[in-house]
Amino acid sequence: MKKRHFFTTILVFILIVTLTAASFAYSPGPGYEALAVLVADMESGDILYASNEHTPVHPASTTKIMTALLAVEALDRGEVAIHDILTTSETALYDMVPAGSSIELEVGEEMSFESLLYAAMLVSANDASNVIAEHLGGTIDGFVRMMNERAYELGAVNTTFRNPHGLTEDGHITTAYDMFRISEFANRNPRFVELYSQQERPHAATNMRPAGFFRSTNFMTDPESPHYFPGADGIKTGFTSAAGFALVSTATRGDVSLMAVVMGVPAEDEYERTHFTESALVYDWAFATFSYEELLSVTYEAIRIPVEFGEGTESVGLRPLDSITALVRTGTVLEDSLIKEITIFNDEANDPLVAPINRGEALGEMVLHFEDRTFGPIPLVAAENVSLSRAAYMENELMDTLSNPWVLGVAGVLALLLLLYIAYVIRYSIIKRRRRKARMGRR
To answer: Domain tally for the chain?
Structure first.
């Protein structure tokens, strides 16, 4: 009986441990079949989840993000005007393939720079991308050099572009991380955001076609599509047989805005699983898993530091100048995850902190580490006023004065002179008395 009772106890213990572990477990990431995935907080740029983010992949038409970025930067610099008319050259159409996406530009067709940009970003037109590239770079090869230089400047060091549109070409590669770096930066430019913020965009007639509309290939932003995802926006779709499906997009739900990059989604099952379904899985998981939490409050007393000559106090509290919030996994115990590095300015200078001190005065800084993210340096300011104690200050000044070697030397000399003077007076008095007695004795 005792043996059976022992085994029963062990089984119950194992069951409790298993259930407890399960209650604290969470999914390590979203379910997906993409080769590479990354999802990040748009507010801070912090990467919330990534898998194979540095694996080389074919970018397909997400290449056009860089093409559009260079175009809007040229607009910002005044090197081109939005209504400039560009003429399609024969060389701009040399690498077009029948299966590639295009607006079927013809040699000699004249279209505005603005319309070509919308064609590249909404319709994913390869021919429009080439016309833009040739205009800005002088030649397409010249523009590709500009693309690679800009990518490197943005930290996309594992990306090599061979063309401005994304059709498969040897050596034309990127990574999910690099595409995030490029897209996150591009998304700070309002001109760039405008290029994908509408599902449909009208274009004027050209010398070879009537007026019409360019319609987005991103079905996540189309309310009439079965792939519609409320809150989704842009940025760029991509597909080739070599790359599979790719999509860089953004989505907002409540106060949370995210950017997702999915690359290398296999084109199988009659397109039942695409970059749209993969991105939706990533977003649903991220929105359910993360929420904004305050990591550091402006009322938090980070440290108290000693103050000399303070009226009624010997220290002052320091608090953060700004609060810090971040997207964190729901249920995270923040105190167990935060590491604080504090620097006090007067300690660095090896000087004492002396009253008076004004509330809000910057006296130090803090670097906050949370998981693999770093915040700061965050200024630390005095939480209260500290008045100068004049009595304590004067006492200290007197003690400092009296302890000065020069003062002590002078005081010693004066004391010696005083003693000599006293000795002289005493001796003089004695001699004078003796003389008086001697005179009286002679009488």
So the answer is: 2
